């Protein structure tokens, strides 16, 4: 009665684990493995080993009573803690050998150890998988050599039984390692594809933003042309027909520009032509960033007044994105912003002395580095960004003034 009651309690506990697994298929499979392992050990211990073609496990009752939980039940954790499962299983087997002299015989031990070996290779890191295999090898050699039996080859004894048992476990371990490597390869490929899509999306979003800004700039200049032409014609000066053509062409171009690029605006965006920020607004931007807790030193060399409006806006956006990244990722830091307007090139450099680690993913407002590179590429320029040797991060952009707009490319 005691044996049957204990077996019932064991299976009841395992079923409870299965219920806790909920809808996660992996946890359900693990619970099933734990139930099967504990059940096979329990049958070999308390039931009729002939039912599973195994040999009886002998030993004192106080040792055999918890044996299914010590040897078989750890399979419940084979995914979440594969190394712990492997070590716990071998600890139970070693304890059984030391106290009762049992060797590795029969289906019960085969199922538990082969499943644990596969799980170790498939779900543990390579370092943990190798560590587990190395730790178990001397225990396997001691038990098999003393018991003169292998896992699946009871007719082999001594050293041959040890070697055969090790090779069997190694085969399942290698199968798990192969599956682990394949899953990792698939995961890395999927992550790489996701990052590529994310970069493409960021570039597309930034191109849309740039197009909206260019639309506002072009629309502003066309509006000025329309007003000047209409005013000249109204004044009654000569060449009225020419001015009328200018006015009509400008009005038509303005209407077509608004119709073509109006779809780029968000539904909740204001329809009016809001002025775009430029280098002149960087002082206000630096002040707002200082108020957020980031000391900023702003230096502007040269005369930015002659910059094309589109370049002026892009310089402001690059500095804005860079400082936002510093606020988000650099921790306690200070930033230096330097803008040089020399000849036909504008150079923007933003550096900080924060704690940004190499390889840290930088993003700001969904754009980040990809968006800044997109802005530089639009003008045929370039942008470089990366950690500084002494700590912190540097963003450096070069925007030519005379090259015109270029086809945008993501680098």
From TrEMBL:
Gene3D superfamilies: 1.20.5.1930, Histidine kinase-like ATPase, C-terminal domain (3.30.565.10). CDD domains: HATPase_UhpB-NarQ-NarX-like (cd16917). It catalyses: ATP + protein L-histidine = ADP + protein N-phospho-L-histidine. GO terms for molecular function: ATP binding; phosphorelay sensor kinase activity; protein dimerization activity. The keyword Membrane applies. The keyword Signal does not apply. It comes from Trebonia kvetii. InterPro entries: HATPase_C_sf, HATPase_dom, Sensor_HK_TwoCompSys, Sig_transdc_His_kin_sub3_dim/P. Residues 310-403 form the Histidine kinase/HSP90-like ATPase domain. The chain crosses the membrane at residues 28-47, 59-77, 84-101, 107-126, 133-153, 159-181. This is histidine kinase. Keywords: ATP-binding, Kinase, Membrane, Nucleotide-binding, Phosphoprotein, Transferase, Transmembrane, Transmembrane helix, Two-component regulatory system. It holds the Pfam family HATPase_c. GO terms for cellular component: membrane. Its EC number is 2.7.13.3.
